[in-house]
Amino acid sequence: MEQRRLGRSGLSVSALSFGTMTLGGKGRHAAMGGIGVKDATRQVDLCLARGVNLFDTADIYSEGLAEEVLGEALHGRRHQVLVATKAFARMGPGANDLGLSRYHLLRACEASLRRLRTDYIDLYQAHGIDSLTPMEETLEAFDLLVRQGKVRYIGCSNFSAWQTVKALGISERCRLPRYISQQIQYSLLVRDAEFELIPMGLDAGVGVLAWSPLVFGLLSGKFRRGAARPEESRLNLLDVPIRLDWEHLYRIVDRMAEIASARAVSVAQVALNWVKGKPGVDTVILGARTEEQLLDNLAAADWNLTAEEMARLDEVSAVPAPYPIWHQRMWAAARNPALPAIRI
Question: Structure pTM?
């Protein structure tokens, strides 16, 4: 498994990492799966055998149960891996049981440590933006956790580019830990990150952990033109607000299927490879309900798309650039070589 530096830090992560939203099966996240300790341990075994070193979770996944299952599955080998978790979401009925306040972050970290059966978290991530809490307070709380030895590195997730840059500026000015990573949604079907988030990450040294590379199964090959759609829909059960253009999806899947057939690999592997091969992406988070799915996904590490195949996938999945990106590409490309001219 290829190892990549996470952003501008000294931390190395595997190109594919393991996501735990399928563990636990409690509450809203029951739609993703209900994997218990026995099967989770087997999945961890498979990941370690293939060189995966990063395991990502969050306190909100299955209301804390995913962290508990992961902690059990990693028992006896915690120091062989990197554990990433996240805090922000509501974890209780109180007014302070959510957000990025010092009060909540310190309590959330202690709770995650207990559930994970560990005394430190390798990458602790702000799971969302909290505009009610000053960023200085949040970063000072992270600093305290780092100095206490409970956290090694910090990252953010689902921030806008300007929010991450603002946080980086505060970290530099106040000499506080900086976000080394951003966990963002990125796939052939959801390419919004290419316009602001990924360029910001490349410029500022903030690495990318890409989540939902298969968009809840839409890019797995199960959804095909002319075929009945699977009755089970994690997308609907999770109430994720994705504006889906079915014809656009089918064009992408058709192109992926052509490449998959020529290479004798699965459609899902093509989708994962595309994300893995994009600039700025340090690791792609896998989520699998079954051992078969996990093994197939892990096989995406064994090969790479060619430049021609990447270009074909880029072309079929392209979406119109928003302002000011299209304006910069049209009228400022001569002064910005990374922004190729486009036609509109």
Answer: 0.93
